[in-house]
Amino acid sequence: MTSLPKKLLAADEPTPVAVENAGGASAFVLVADHAGNAIPRVLGRLGVAEAELQRHIAWDIGIAGLGRVLADALDAPLIRQTYSRLVIDCNRPLDAASSIAEVSEHTAIPGNVGLSEAEKAARADEIFRPYHDRIEAELEHRRQAGRATALISLHSFTPVFKGVARPWHAAVLYNRDPRFAHGLMALLNAEKQFTVGDNAPYAVSDATDYTIPVHAERRGLHHVLIEIRQDLIADENGQRDWALRLARLLPLAVQRLSR
Ligand SMILES: [Zn+2]
Q: Mean pLDDT throughout 101-112?
């Protein structure tokens, strides 16, 4: 008798990908790789204290709320991941050591230590792949329909990392193609109230990122990875404020490309 394959997600648990404003008519597609902090029940909270699962190590605080307002304001679809990045990081190549992190900042993740290949594969098959397949389908559908598309990847970063305070309010990240990112950065700088990171505190690379290299660069789409500092979008007012700012500036950033 063969044993049944082990399922990660039960039927009553959240789907790994949520889509809002699916029929959005604008040129923007919004994605949020770290928007959720759900943990599959069978993983027993990964052995991590509940308070840790509310921290930035588990998800991008504020981004789901910001993304919803931004999707509405731009009339753009938002495709967001619902499970914690600690289960599997949907912006890491599957072969990266940080794909299923054993330590995040200073926190050990016991439930990620000593996994079998089958356990790793279940996380990839039930969380990572459905999310990226949905993005792929959206972009392919738009390509076939001849629709212009700019891919906007939404993230947030902790104001203090490993004890060091960060000076930036927001940041634009990119890999091979800085054009859209630098246009948006110029517009943010013109507001004269923000310190904007240029590929800082993180930069996009093939080794450390998945969404921009795979979905945007390979397709030749205009793109930017936006990072907002989490204390600025911790509540609804802040999320709305930044969402409406980005809704005003993103179309201007597109216009700059055709000048
Ligand atoms: Zn993130």
A: 95
Angstrom distance (rounded) from CA 174 to CA 166:
19
* pTM (two decimals): 0.96
Q: Which residues, by Cβ under 5 Å, contact ligand 1, an ion?
A: 34, 60, 155
CA of 32 to the centre of ligand 1 (A): 7
Report the distance separating Cα 79 and Cα 89, nearest Å: 15
For residue 2, the CA-to-ligand 1 centroid distance in Å is 40
* Peptide bond before residue 40 is cis, with ω within 30 degrees of 0: no
- Tell me the per-residue pLDDT of 10-60, one tens digit each, with 9 for 90 and over: 999 999 999 999 999 999 999 999 999 999 999 999 999 999 999 999 999
Whether 3 shows a pLDDT value over 70: the answer reads no
Q: How far is the CA of 4 from the centre of ligand 1 (A)?
A: 34
Cα(5) to centroid(ligand 1), Å: 31
Question: How many Å lie between the centroid of ligand 1 and the Cα of residue 133?
Answer: 19
Give me ligand 1 centre to Cα 156, in Å: 6
Contacts of 114 (CB under 8 A, 6+ apart): none
For ligand 1, the distance from its centroid to the CA atom of residue 33, given in whole angstroms, is 6
- In whole angstroms, give the CA distance from residue 85 to residue 32: 11
